[in-house]
Amino acid sequence: MALRWVRRNISVFGGDPNNVTILGNSAGGGGVLSLLASPLAQGLFHRAIVQGGVFRMTDVSTAENLLDDAIPGDPFSSGEVIVKLMRRDGFAEDRQTAKERLRTMNKQDLARYLRSKTPAELFWAYYLGYDLHPFDLLQVPKVFGGGYVLPGITDPQQIFSDVANYNEVPIILGANRDEVRLFMMANTELVDTRFGLPVGIKNIDTYERYGGYGAEAFTYAMVDDLAGILRSAQGRTVWAYRFDVDDLRNLVVVDLKRLMGAAHGVDKPFSFGNFPRPNRVMFPPSMQEEFDLVSTSMMSYWASFAYNGEPGTGHTEEEILWTPWGDEGNTRIVFDIEDDGGVRMVPDRYSISDTKKRFLEDQQLPAAQKCEMYPQLFWFSSSTGDLWDLGCDSPL
User: Fold this and answer.
1) The CATH number of the domain where 292 resides is what?
2) Secondary structure element (H or E) that encloses residue 91, with its range
3) Which pLDDT score, from 0 to 100, does residue 138 have?
């Protein structure tokens, strides 16, 4: 609806309804990719920028069914949530009674029941049994392939390998070098906390290894996998980047450069040229000139892409040439300060099978830690067999 509003009204503000760029970071990046896949969004935008986003659709059965249905649903499917609410309300003494009551309710009764719930009651049903670890939130169904807003097929490979299946536009895909560390710093198995805030790393070697494998896995999921698919489908209109700026403050109690580095979301103030609080707590003022140089480059490329459909040498035409994914052996541009290599093209490619193999064979990590880390690092391509091979107590 927002894009339809833009199409109808943006010319009044001096905009061009035939040259609309959508940009999203994190979950917003997933939203951008969802718009690429949505038939309802056809023709409503003309370029797309994804900063640290992943496209994952859930089929309707997984999103709705109960865990013990013939086609099992998600642990937090709509069916499971309703059963929990009914038992909490006293409408059913046990799970079986709640299931039978659910199956006898028509759509109107079900809608009336759910709309009678307060936000607190609904959150209770979703948080029940959660330890509220950030990784766990990724497992809740969010985007559904129902065949109307989004296609009934849910495999990204199947959707984005054929331009007939999605809204083909020039696209930039990006990830930060240390994506996973934003989530690691909330993991009390890895960090010491005080008053809920991280104050130290328990084991530097383990933390670095975890972060290294996680960075490769997340970059593959956010960029490399989809970039390769899109390049094959739509040709030289796919660009990729990696954000490496990690020069954060040492706050005495905690060194943010080591704890966070170029973590998930750290690139946002750079792409907008705005470093408001609380970002200023993270970024040392002594580095602001270097940060501004990186930010100026990013904004110049983003502006050129929005105007012309390609980042090229930036809107000022003074940047290095950002070539499409796969051209001349290069894959992505790297954004970093001058002392750490500056803005440059690199040929780096990430293979999830290679990363996973090195992780599973890493003798420096105890098996128990691997059992905990594996589903968190490889949540988009986990294998129950790998966990059994590690000797873990239970599969995914």
Assistant:
1) 3.40.50.1820
2) none
3) 41
Closest alpha carbon to 297 in 338, 249, 239, 248: 338
Q: Does residue 395 fall inside a structural domain? A: no
Q: 278 with 290, same domain?
A: yes
Do 180 and 84 belong together in one domain? Answer: no
Reported residue count of the chain is: 396
Give the C-alpha distances (Å, rounded to integers) separating 74 from 98, 129, 206, 221, 273: 17, 14, 31, 21, 40
303 shares its domain with 275: yes
Between the alpha carbon of residue 72 and those of residues 63, 66, 136, the distances in Å are 9, 6, 19
Structure token pair of residue 138? 């990724």
Prediction pTM value: 0.89
Pair (209, 242) in one structural domain: yes
Q: Is 106 helix (H, G, I), strand (E, B) or coil?
A: coil
- List CB contacts of 253: < 8 A, sequence separation 6 or more: 199, 200
Residue 396 is assigned to a structural domain of this protein: no
Question: In this structure, how many other beta carbons lie within 10 angstroms of the beta carbon of residue 391?
Answer: 10
Same domain, 44 and 165: yes
Are 106 and 171 spatial neighbours (Cβ–Cβ below 8 Å)?
no
**Mean pLDDT, the chain, as a whole number?**
89
Strands (E), 105-208: 144-145, 171-176, 191-194, 197-201
Domain count, the chain: 3
CA distance 105 to 113: 10
Q: Is residue 229 part of a domain?
A: yes
Within a 10 A sphere around the Cβ of 103, how many other Cβ atoms?
9
Helix (H, G, I), strand (E, B) or coil at 22: strand
Residue type, 141: P
d(C-alpha 50, C-alpha 48), whole Å: 7
Do 18 and 102 belong to one domain? no
Residue 133 has pLDDT above 50, yes or no: no
Cα–Cα separations (whole angstroms), residue 14 to 163, 303, 349: 31, 16, 41
Does the bond joining 278 to the residue before it have cis omega, within 30 degrees of 0? yes
Boundaries of domain holding 222: 2-56+143-346
Name residues whose C-beta falls within 8 Å of residue 2's C-beta, 6 or more positions apart in sequence. Answer: none
pLDDT at residue 132 in the model: 47
DSSP 136: G
Which of these ranges, 104-118, 123-137, 194-208, has the smallest mean pLDDT? Answer: 123-137
Do 116 and 256 belong together in one domain? no
